[in-house]
Amino acid sequence: MNGPEAGAAPGVDDLERGRVLPRFAAPTRWVHGATAVFTIVCVLSAAVLYDGTLAVAVGHRGLVEHVHVYTGFALPVPLLVGVVFRSYREDGRRLNRWTARDWSWLRRRTRRDGTLQVGKFNAGQKTNAALSVGSIAALLVSGLTMWFPQLAGIAWRSGATFVHDWFALAFGLLAVGHVAMALRDPHAMTGMRTGRVPLRWARREHGAWARELAGEPPLVPDPPSSTSRDH
Residue 119 in contact with residue 208, Cβ under 8 Å? Predict the structure, then answer.
């Protein structure tokens, strides 16, 4: 018999089955969606520009180049517009805050078994966010230098091309890895699509955050550490 015995008191799992928690407000979801669309267009157009076989198959190189450039200029816009919204700023603050528990999460092989309770974002998500923002900034600056040659000398333009090419490759691989990790966790994808996640998933993957929303004290406080710091 799979279910609880007749007349038995329901357990915690039974009480929490079907319950959901609000995870992402609309501004955060919109920023994430718009950034994802711009990233996909940038990656695909860059592939056409850099791969001769694709360039011949697609053609219209001038059009593809303009799509790539203007989409690249638009890439940071959603991130900047999101700052207007309080919920987005709060998510950004959480992503930018590293604690001793985050470093412990990175060192553990069993980091996803729920025994180490982390906040709304784990250290992997924080690392991805930092690398993504840094890559976008580097690509924007190097892209501006390449597109407006009057801004710098030839040495700077050559350096900008080198930086842009390698950061584009790294950013593309980072985006592919991000998508691959998301596909392995359908509840995380649901949270970004609908703004809600199952309570049971939240307790397993982000236990400290789930307890915070429930108004419960943390099971174990963050240990003091010299590596715990706010950026």
Answer: yes
